[in-house]
Amino acid sequence: MAVKYLSLVRNSSQLKSLVSNSIWSILASIMQRGNIFLVNIIIARMIDAELFGQYSLLKSTIQVFELSLGIAFGLSMTKFISEHRYITNKKNIDINRIIKTNLYSSAFLSLILFGILELSSNYFANSILNKPELLNLFRISIFYVLFSNIVQCFIGILKGDENFKGIFKFSFITGILNLFTVSILTFYFSLTGAVVALVLFSLFQLTTYLISVSKRNNFIQVLTNQKIIIDFKLIKKFNLPAILSGLAAPPAIWYINLSLSQTENGFIQLAHFNAAYLIFAVIVFVPISISDAIFPLFSKYISRTEKFKQFFLANLLLIFALATMVSLVPLVFPELLMSLFGKEFIAGGDSLRYLAIAAIFSSLLTVLGKFNATINKMWMNLSFNMFWAGLLVLSSIYFVDQGAVGISKAYLTAYAILFAVQFTYSMKKIK
């Protein structure tokens, strides 16, 4: 397999592009995930574990809507823009119509969500979160939804154009601004400052990525041209299942965080789990970065079945090797890594061990998900995500009494079972 892959890549005119994209994608991910990691360490050390648990619950609540909308439209941008770059008959894809459809749809749905969340904020704070004192912070945090969904569309455009260097540059700029903003606001205003900094970060991103994307040929004209109409067929075929797929998992994750927060010492347990999960996100960043760089190239080989199969399997093997190597550190030294967040977090070491193993399966599933997107099986992605969400909820109900460790076990169980099912499906489709 490795020999076939090397032969395929060596003879490919896209070798230079693949290597360059992978490097810049990894560097961008280092900036993005590293920034998130450092920011949360700063917040955790400036406020106690109880408040950090409340911050984690607020953040997971609003990110439900970012993950369901923004990433779905961003994926659509990447897929169709990259296909437009590689296909011979470019008349088959109206790329301007696709860009306008995704941006307008994302902005429209984000505004609707913002209105719904604002109108229901009292209910959320009092009845769901059971924390009336978080009402004003919840109202502030929903601005994040408004900004971040559109940001994901802009990032999708840059990925489709294979402008990973641009993503790195703007990740660096916004990351530095974010570190200063979080440090100052959290130091002076505690939890309130941390939430305001989160919203400001999404605004920084929106501004910088808009500047980058606006330099694209005819971008502004595309958005304002009334002759370019919204493509509802695209929404039905690709965006709708992608959105529903995104809606499947985040609510389950949010429900689990909420359930954990309501156990004995719940917010402290949630703080431990969230710290471990942040390290989990660092573990998977290299595999996901390479997966992002490879995704546009799937379109190049999709019409050549045997090479497509070789390319797919070899990259799956590559991701497995990378994820396994990176996971070894948290498996062996979990308490040391958790201590970065403060002495209160060392007790969450066992939780990190289970998440480190889960990270291997999660990394592999990113490749399988992009495989389905390439072959236009977005409705299957929806089915798999719903299956995973169901597994996660059921597993968490069984394990939640064990606190943060139990929730980590639930994640490992759900990821492992989904990988077995989805890998079997992918192998059948690729034959």
TrEMBL record:
It is a multi-pass membrane protein. Pfam families: Polysacc_synt (PF01943). Keywords: Cell membrane, Membrane, Transmembrane, Transmembrane helix. The chain crosses the membrane at residues 21-44, 64-82, 103-125, 137-158, 170-189, 195-213, 234-256, 276-299, 311-333, 353-371, 378-400, 406-425. It is found in: Cell membrane. This is Polysaccharide biosynthesis protein. GO terms for cellular component: plasma membrane. Coiled coil: none annotated. It comes from the Bacteria. Its main location: membrane. The keyword Membrane applies. The lineage of its organism: Bacteria, Pseudomonadati, Bacteroidota, Flavobacteriia, Flavobacteriales. InterPro entries: Poly_Biosynth_Transport, Polysacc_synth.
